[in-house]
Amino acid sequence: MCPGLAYWMYLDIVPLPxxxxxxxxxxxxxxxxxxxxGKLSFNHDVRPILSKNCFACHGPDASSRQGNxxxxxxxxxTGAEGGHAGIVPGDSAKSRIVMRITHPSAPMPPAxxxxxxxxxxxxxxxxxxxxxxxxxxxxxxxxxxRPDPPKVRQTDWPKNEIDYFVLARLEAxxxxxxxxxxxxxxxxRLYLDLVGLPPTPEQARAFAEDGSPNAYExxxxxxxxxxxxxxxxxxxxxxxARYADSKGYEADRLRTMWPYRDWVIRALNENMPFDRFxxxxxxxxxxxxxxxxxxxxxxxxxxxxxxxxxxxxxxxFRDAAVKDRVATTGQVWMGLTWGCAQCHSHKFDPISHxxxxxxxxxxxxxxxxxxxxxxxxxxxxKKTTTLIMRELPADKRRATRIHLRGNFLDPGDPVEAAVxxxxxxxxxxxxxxxxxxxxxxVDKNNPLTARxxxxxxxxxxxxxxxxxxxxxxxxxxxxPSHPELLDWLATEFMRxxxxxxxxxxxxxxxxxxxxxxxASTAQVERDxxxxxxxxxxxxxxxxxxxxxxxxxASGLLSEKMYGPPVMPLQPDxxxxxxxxxxxxxxxxxxxxYRRALYTLWRRTSPYPSATTFDAPSAEVCTMRRIRTNxxxxxxxxxxDPVALxxxxxxxxxxxxxxDSDVPDRIxxxxxxxxxxxxxxxxxxxxxxxxxxxxxxxxxxxxxxxxLLNVDRIVYATxxxxxxxxxxxxxxxxxxxxxxxxxxxxxxxxxxxxxxKKGQSMFGHIKPKKKREKKPGEEREEEEDDSGxxxxxxxxxxxxxxxxxRRQFTVDGPGFEGFRVAARFRxxxxxxxxxxxxxxxxxxxxxxxxxxxxxAAERTIRPGKNLIAxxxxxxxxxxxxxFIDVSLTALRPPDYERSRADDAERAAWVTVAHVLLNLDxxxxxx
Length: 925
Fold this sequence. Notes:
The structure is a single chain. The chain is an alpha+beta fold. It folds into four domains: about 5-135, no CATH class; about 275-440, no CATH class; about 545-710 and about 900-925, no CATH class; about 720-770 and about 780-890, Galactose-binding domain-like (Jelly Rolls, Sandwich). The protein is built from 32 helices and 18 strands. Strands 6, 9, 10, 12, 15 and 17 form a six-stranded mixed beta sheet that branches. Strands 8-7-11-16-13-14 form a six-stranded antiparallel beta sheet. It has a two-stranded antiparallel ribbon with strand order 1-2. β1 (about 375-380) and β2 (about 385) form a beta hairpin.
């Protein structure tokens, strides 16, 4: 019996036979309607299906639209704007789109264009049409409206507004939040998140034992005010800024960008409001009287790659840089892929081809022009000149045209600077330049900037954003896991006047952030990626933290801030870059142990251990690092010299402590590496490891010696010695000949007393032709294609070939790592003691720095040895030709003297190495 029928029968108002069927029909219909679920949400249920499967061919891009059918707007889908009608609102059976997606033999999407819609997706489309086919504007394009925190049942859990949104979702899903993490875990989490470094055992212990009500907040405030805060969060921003210390492309020459990096650190430490932070980077040069720091800030968009190699088209690469600036601006501030519209209208989002070039026009008026001199630049002192932005004077402004199919050589209609129609209007009082664009981006009517920024903060603190696709808030991006929370955070950020530290403090003060990361089997099965935030974050550390934490635990980490980039130890051979004489010279002293943020970053050969842990190359803006899990990462932490040296010093810290017994030393080393005190079973396992390692090392004194002297082994540059310098260091006398010598001329016993004597470098350098400067022309500085200025020849060489010989002395046994460096134009071969050592191969010019062959190295003995070089002209006519050779080697390591306790001390290095490689050490919990 339908609900309510018994009530009518009880009242007996009318005879039952007359109304039974009528009541049964009406009341059952009412009951069924009441039990039906609510109407579908276009943004939540329907748009993802259409965006994934339909918009590429039936979306905003008119030039590639198929079948004259548009589905991203209601007017297009119903044929109201002139195309075919794919939808009949209220009648799915008559809608062409339904017929096409359910066609038995040729369903849409067509083969090769995507997967066929599932039965559930088809039913959603049908139901949506039957409900009226209502469209809603994409959620991210609507300005955020501040919601009230929802009601929750567990009222004693929330600590601030964030928790109400999270808890309401958990309660709706039938879940409960995790308990608060223990104090040691919270201390480590806070320190890693806010300053990028772990706390010392003393700091962690003080936090854990502080029972005062404001202990947690006091620690948060201390960390937010630490100078290390700017270093940690600058690392995040520099990914967006595609910061590097080189220009990119094949030659990838070095340039001075580090003053911009230092500006970012200082701005973050000073808690510069995000709207000001934005304006200075996009348009600091356009302020009325820009200061030095405001000009340095414009380095944000001078981080674009430049290609000044000979034979390249400067305008082609200037255009590429401008397009990169448009794409980067769209992603960093609005989370949209503006760059997709440079060749055609965006296929998914409402950004037309024309609108891309209207945005392009904002950035098309800067002075930089992909030239060797890198102007405009700012001279900071006698040694430092950095790249900045400057606007062209009024009489030199460029006309901006649409680039048909994205080709700068195929200009279309002219355009003026403007913003896309889909979004809020350009500020009426703002200039139509980069300064105005910056104001438009941080206008509180902008629906995206605040959302994108708080989502970025959330992602760095929780491992994933509320919108997982940080780089794409458009139609192809992921929906927010907690949309009301995202809008609350965005409006709160603007209410706080763009206070970055303020909004970060709000997040870390929440009960949501403080949850334990320990996950039950049921939690993992229900929510494997923790999108509902029913537990704390547990993610692997970023590349920089992996390195910095090892150095911090070992006591090696330098606190030095700012300044030119440094070169910590890296494997040989990484910098074999074409057209460059640059060499990786391992820094000395504390510069070896500075935070990873300060490591010199060359785009074509970035620091290898960092890239293994997913650090980007900086060739393009990186909105989020996708974490990988590869065997190479384990190999780095096991074998990288930084890890080995850190283990050596961590072991020394454990041994140097006040405690002398094994368990107490284990506890100290454990806390230095992991912060928390170890459990007794962990102490027992490490003690067993120590005893086993000690026994093995007693049987292998050489292995113990290597572990205890790892820093003396790995820093090869400290052992480098020059056996034969090149002419830049000092002229060196060689025996030489330009006539064909006897066959055995390169053997040590060959008598060369009749050969001529000459000083390096040997060659003929053709003088530059000076060209008169035309009226009004800017004279540009010239640079040789091979990456260095034309050298001075000491000994004239104009023949087709030249043969060189010289003795060198090796002072004792144990020398290794013999290398030949050569600056040359032509080709050459080198022999040592009569054995082939290296050859220039196919290269006809350059500097090269190569390890000699193993066969040649085996011939080198203490005392006198001989190097022989044969060089041949390969350049026709009277062009430059030269050869300049040097020879270097590594002295034997200067080991510590052996001691009776070597095996014991080396065993502690083994224990420390294991601690630094634990999963828990490499993860944030």
